[in-house]
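Quick start: read one record
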Amino acid sequence: MEIKGKTVLVLGGWGLVGSAICRKLVPEQPEKIIVSSLLKSEALDAVEQLRSEYPDHDPDFFVPYYGNIFVREDFKDLRREDILGNSERRRVLISDTLGELSEETLKASAVYNLITDYRPELIIDCINSATAIAYQDQFQSSRSLLKELDKSKSGEENILYDSIERLLCTLYTPQLIRHIQLLYRSMHDAGTKMYLKIGTSGTGGMGLNIPYTHSEEKPSSVLLSKSAVAGAHTLLMFLMGRTPDAPITKEIKPTAAIAWKRVGFGEIKRRGKPILLQDCSPDDPYVIGDHLELRTAAKTRITDETLHSVFIDTGENGLFSRGEFEAITTPGQMEYVTPEEIAEDVVFEIKGGNTGHDIINALDNATLAPTYRAGYLFHSAFDRMRELEHKHNVDSVAFELLGPPRLSKLLYESYLLSREFGSFDAIEKTSPETMSHELVRMIREDGKLRSEIISIGIPILLPDGKSLLRGEEIKIPPYRGEGTLPSSKKAVDAWAHDGWVDLRVANMSLWKERLKAIISMTEPIPHGDTSSRFIYTKEYWNNFETIEPGKVVGWIFSYEEKGLRMKA
């Protein structure tokens, strides 16, 4: 991809890697660089530093943006505790994460507003997303919830409600999935051409024997959560890279400590606050009795001084002492890689080079794709199933074991059309009203067929749009804690689309249009063309003399619903 003249968004641009990437991008002459960071002070500091380093550039060449892109726009400038500590905000956060991805949820999100406002052709994501999600510490939230459960059993103070909501707010997988969904939809709407992620292994490239913990067991559950989230994140981006209307997707995943930003001497801060020096006199020590207090001011004297020392600044990973830095970079430990090396690989990959470090490309090449042998054997398996259908006088249509219900719904609708009308031509000559009438007649007369459809959880909607033939359980709408749902014309349309055999006239019209589109696809194929250029030829459709449900539904998923496989 040519970077010149493009708008580039660098997420996490204040950080160590983000800053190095911004500097590496400048010589490529993009139109502008949006430098994003969590805090206002960080974004402004990053842009001020870049403007001072490149004084010949228009000041508007570097654009600061700040806020938390993992939440909605209204919450982006709030501390996480300010969200979780407010019951109304907490419920909104839960709904945004665990609810359906509606248009309102999408357009209320901070990431959607950021991307659609600036419409970057290129996004480089340097946020340590796995850390941001995993270090919310689902384990601690669970432990707190268990304590509240114990209190509620014993009749003590019960703040169980708040604890449950807080736990729901820390669930890793829903947060990660929603983030990727929002990111994909945002980039699609903004016309982004490429997305490159700087990922993480979670352990600095080390294995389960990593000796560093967060004061828990070894290996650390919190640290392994970070690796688990990082792996899930990669697989979701792998899927995004296989989506035809998504941007080109790449990931570079450093497997070492990343250093450094600067070396200096000064005040040491923890979470942005100076570390106050404390003292405990040897003449008056704390005595361990039957219990050890984890937090107590007894015997401790707070001084007016703060911790000052020599440090190496590793950006978002914080300040390390000389001893800490020496220990983790010892050969055989994490070792380290410089941000400039990462930035060099990033720009090279964007411009079409092959560094060998793109994880998405590596997965594409390492996964086992569909094989020639499987394709060769398909016909023998299919023919054997046909033989058994004929022998046992049954038609094998759908079981709803695979799912989703829409697959079963479409298979049965196309099967009913095939059985009643036989060919594309017959349906073309039949009115939607007649089609609806004849399929209703078939359903009324064939009790076995009717029973097979509704018994797998697929209801049959009759032409009046209100009468439903159904079994005890229906797959659509799915059960989500509520046994009864309000109904409306809009709701019925949605349910019928997702998983009801729909015998209404409007759906028959849709089927006529659908089959006409299939025929139209074959018209541009030159007569007598026997090359490998085309798949959906008249011969593939048996000259339209039959309607084969599996083929028709496969076409619907590929073309009508734009679910065509992108890579082998």
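The two ends are 23 Å apart (CA to CA).
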